[in-house]
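Late entry, written up from scratch paper. The run itself happened at the end of the previous shift, but nothing got recorded in the book at the time, so transcribing now.
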Amino acid sequence: MGIRCACGLIIPNLTSINQVPLFFLETPDIDALGSVTVDIDACNNDLQGSFVTINFLQTSPETPDLSFTFNSVQINSVTCTTDVGVCFIQITGSGQVEGETETRQFQFLVEQQEGQPSRIFSFSIVLFASTGSIFFPQDEVTTFGCPQ
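Output as recorded:
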């Protein structure tokens, strides 16, 4: 980012190593499995320069294919809180699913547990899709505002 960041997160095009279940509002009977790729550069000191991109590539055979790419258009907040040895970095804002004109609210959450080799993240795109926890290697993520 080139500026001092008191609270933030950098995840450069990280693809999940596991099959991730996504839950879609419009197709409640289908929990699609696939890979999730995230590209995030978010800092509370530079909300205007921050961004979140989420790509879901469905690998399960359900139809219709629910693959999508979501791009933020505005970051509203980046917050860091700590509770009982766990640091939470939450990013909120709005964005669009490619191919749609509707702007949707989103939340992206990273949990960093002190002394643990992995991180957990989840995301929710309001009235569209959400996921539970996904683990990924700690060394591929840079956090600011959490104890190391």
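The domain at 8-144 is CATH 2.40.128 (Lipocalin).
(Scratch paper discarded after transcription.)
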